[in-house]
Amino acid sequence: MIALYGRVSTEEQATKGYSLRNQIEECRRKANTKEIVEYVDDGYSGEFLERPALTKLREDVKGNRITKVYCYDPDRLSRKLMNALIIDDEFRSKGVDIIYINGEYADSPEGKLFYSLRGAISEFEKAKITERMSSGRKRKAQEGKIVKNHKMYGYDYDKEKAMYVINEHEASVVKMIFHKFVVEQIGMNSIAKELTAKGVKTKTGKDVWHRQVVRQILMNESYTGDYYQNKWNTEGMIRNKYTDNPDNKIKMRHRDKSEWIPISIPQIIERTQYEEAAELLKQSRRRYAKAAVNQYLLSGLLRCGTCGNTMVGTKTTWWGKPHFIYTDRKSHAGAKHPGCVLDIKMEKLDEEVWKDVEQLVYNPDLLFKYDNTKDVSMELKQAEKLKEDIKKAEKGRKKLYSLFAISDDLDEEELKKEIVDLQDKQRKAEERLMEVEKEINKNKNDRDIDSIKETINELMSKEDRITFDVKKSLIRVLVKEVIVEGKEKININYF
């Protein structure tokens, strides 16, 4: 229900001709609805809060019978600024917006003071709440209690004792992972695939293990029994939801080690084994950093027309000799489709695609000869998946809001963080969906051929001959995707 509040004192009526009718008419015009209830104090001073209509309005707001209030300006609520702030805050705490009709009020000295004070009070209250919660968590940590259940694999959380206890089944998996990596020298990807094949569930109940999950376990020092709280500084991160610019977002960062609070938890892995695993991970990073990277002309453009997998370039050995191929095989743990084992020689495919593209390089007008129709089945599937992700995020947020409303013992800040994370996921999915739908609806006739010609000429003028890098750039100017249908047929989708 929408309400309007109007007030005029006897003095104002007599000396200033302050019109109550004008207030009501302006409020109704702004609300633009007939479904509005009037709360009017005629002949009452704004010095005091005890007014019949105002008292009734406050009671109805507390009883959740009012959703929005229209008022000419704050001095109609009260002549005293502090009282007006109290009522304003009281209404907003119940989720009721107050719309002030007098737009000039915001630009007046009184209005600027009013809004400045309201903002300052709000910030002060937030800071005090944050300080109290932070102090409470820190005190709890100093008492040797676990502040928050991070759902660490290998442990369960005893809420009464505020402590991690070993989950025997998961702990045996953790020990197996360290043993295979350190003793048997088995790679993280192979370990992840083995756990998936054996039907071992992840901490979140998923059937598929990924290489990165295994890596996180190997890097987790907590399994040695040394657990640290107050390690991460998340101050100010709640504001990230108000900006889309990644440069303006505050990142989670380590506090100084002197601020960390150590807690002993049950040990699963010996420290020596953890340190051996850490050293192997360092060596693996060094090997990866030094590894020579082969260049592939069509990297990022190829897709198998049968299974839909992207195709990547790789080096293989046939009869003792090295060969370079493009393949749709996905050997990493957690791959949704392993591929239909389509391998094609890199040299053969590069030559075939470049031969077709080369015609356009010297005559871009030929772009008009290509069929404007394009298979958008992959984009349609992606759009459906994004819509599903958006629905899941919305549903998740509603559940968290419900928990927030009915529970008193949940961590308010953590709930807020999870809600913000879901909002961020939903926003990114919505942005990506807009891009995909735009691509589906895109008409190839809208291309700017002159712009393409200009880009081609610029690339061609950089070198005396067409080098590998120039070829790669030219292909990316003209080609959107290459669909490989078996070893003999290819479809090149141009922009």
UniProtKB/TrEMBL annotation:
<dbReference type="InterPro" id="IPR036162">
    <property type="entry name" value="Resolvase-like_N_sf"/>
</dbReference>
<keyword id="KW-0175">Coiled coil</keyword>
<feature type="domain" description="Resolvase/invertase-type recombinase catalytic">
    <location>
        <begin position="1"/>
        <end position="144"/>
    </location>
</feature>
<dbReference type="InterPro" id="IPR050639">
    <property type="entry name" value="SSR_resolvase"/>
</dbReference>
<feature type="coiled-coil region">
    <location>
        <begin position="376"/>
        <end position="446"/>
    </location>
</feature>
<protein>
    <submittedName>
        <fullName>DNA recombinase</fullName>
    </submittedName>
</protein>
<dbReference type="InterPro" id="IPR006119">
    <property type="entry name" value="Resolv_N"/>
</dbReference>
<dbReference type="Pfam" id="PF07508">
    <property type="entry name" value="Recombinase"/>
</dbReference>
<dbReference type="InterPro" id="IPR011109">
    <property type="entry name" value="DNA_bind_recombinase_dom"/>
</dbReference>
<dbReference type="InterPro" id="IPR025827">
    <property type="entry name" value="Zn_ribbon_recom_dom"/>
</dbReference>
<dbReference type="Pfam" id="PF13408">
    <property type="entry name" value="Zn_ribbon_recom"/>
</dbReference>
<feature type="domain" description="Recombinase">
    <location>
        <begin position="152"/>
        <end position="287"/>
    </location>
</feature>
<dbReference type="Pfam" id="PF00239">
    <property type="entry name" value="Resolvase"/>
</dbReference>
<dbReference type="InterPro" id="IPR038109">
    <property type="entry name" value="DNA_bind_recomb_sf"/>
</dbReference>
